[in-house]
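call fold(seq) -> tokens
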Amino acid sequence: TALPELHATSTDAEFVGVVWALICIIADTAVREASIHTDSLNVVQLLDGQRPTDCSPLPLLTRVLWDIASKGRALTIAHVKGHDGHPWNSLADRLAVWTSKELLTPSFFPNELAD
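ret:
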């Protein structure tokens, strides 16, 4: 059977980006401090300690990974204005668009994973 096509929102993409950043931070035991920048107020508010309004898996996973990564590390979350020429934000936006069009289709996944 083929894998279904995935439909994600821009907010989902922001959470996934932060999840990957946190996984990298956790995996590198030499990291003692890190700052994650996002244009998503939802992500910033969640990691600043506000209760999530959405209890779907991505925000919850993000919060759990944040708590794990924060042990023994100084982590900060920073908001950057989206679509305002911030070079890293512009790159992230371009990667998100590319990913949504090219990678998150059933053809991206090997057929062996579909069975």
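Residues 10-27 form the longest helix (18 residues).
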